[in-house]
Amino acid sequence: MSDENDEQEEEIILSELETDELIEQMFDDLYDGLGEEIAEGTQILLDRGWKAKKVLDEALVAGMNIVGVDFRDGILFVPEVLLSANAMKSGMAILKPLLSESGTKPVGKMVIGTVKGDIHDIGKNLVGMMMEGAGFEVIDLGINTDVETYVEALKTESPDILGMSALLTTTMPYMKVVIDNLKEQGIRDDYIVMVGGAPLNEEVCAAMGADAYCRDAATAVETAKELMQQRRAC
Ligand code: B1M
Questions:
Q1: Ligand 1 center to residue 91 CA distance, Å?
Q2: How far is the CA of 48 from the centre of ligand 1 (A)?
Q3: pTM (predicted TM-score)
Q4: Highest mean pLDDT among 6-10, 22-26, 78-82
Q5: β-bridge mates for residue 137, sequence order
Q6: CA distances from 70 to 78, 80, 168 (A)
Q7: Which residue among 120, 141, 143 is best mutated to probe the pocket of ligand 1, counting the most ligand atoms within 8 A of its Cβ?
Q8: Distance between CA atoms of 150 and 169, rounded to whole angstroms?
C-alpha cells in the first residue's frame, strides 16, 4: 500500500497541475518542507503570468500561515517549522529580486537579535523566518548583541520593530538595559519593541517597558501585524 502511495506521490508533475491545484500542492510542499518543489512551483506561477507579490501572498505567505497555526496549536514542532521556513526561503530567493524591482513594500521591517551574553539563536531564527514568511523584512543581528549594536542598527535600518530574544534568566535583564538606553536617547517610542524567550512572561515584559511579549514565533507574527496596524492607524 505504501509503495503504491509513494508511486502516486512521485507522479505529481507540478507543471501539469491547474493553478488552483498547484497552489494547494505548494501549501502541502511548504508544510512538508520541500524546498525544491517550492522553488519550482514559484517559478511556474511566475511563468503563468502571476506577479511576484501575488505569488508571495497567495502561495507562500498563505502556506506559511497554515504552518504557523499548526505550530501555535502544537500540531507541528520546531524542526518541522524550520524545514517549512527553509522551503519558503527557496521561493523567496526567486521572488526577492522581482519584488525589489517592482518596488513592493514589505509589510514592515524588524531588527532582531539575541541579547548580550546569550548565544541561543534557534528561537530567534525561527521568529525571523516566520516574520519573513509573513512578508516582513528582517534584519538579523545574530547572537550576543550589545546595546550599541542594537542602537546602530535602529539608526541605519529605521525598522518599525525591535525584536529581542533571551533564553537565560541572567541575560533577560539586558533587554531593559537596551530599552532604557533608547529612552535616554529619546527614541524609545520610535519603535515597537517586542521581546521573547523561555524565561520571559507578560509581567517581565511590562516591567522592562517593552510593547509586547511573544511566547512563540506564531504569536510574534500575529502581534507584529496587530501593532503595525495600530501604529499606522495613529
Ligand atoms: Co541552553 N539553556 N545553555 N543551550 N538551552 C536553556 C535555555 C536552559 C533552560 C536549559 C536548562 O537548564 N533546562 C538553561 C537556562 C536556564 C535559565 O537561565 N533559566 C540553559 C543554559 C543554562 C545554558 C548554558 C548556560 C549551559 C552552560 O554552558 N552551562 C549555556 C549558555 C550559553 C550562553 O548563551 N552564554 C547554554 C548553551 C546552549 C547550547 C549552545 C548548547 C544550545 C543553544 C544552541 C543555539 O541556540 N544555537 C542550548 C539549547 C539548545 C538550550 C535548550 C535545550 C533549547 C533552547 C531552544 O532552542 N529551544 C534550552 C532548554 C529549553 O528551552 N527547553 C536551554 C527551542 C526554541 C524554538 O524555543 O528559544 O524558547 P525558544 O524560542 C521560542 C520562544 O521563546 C519565542 O519564539 C520561539 C519560537 O517559538 N521567542 C521569541 C524566542 N525569542 C523570541 C524573540 C521574539 C519573539 C519571540 O522577538 C520578537
A1: 29
A2: 44
A3: 0.84
A4: 22-26
A5: 109
A6: 11, 11, 27
A7: 120
A8: 20
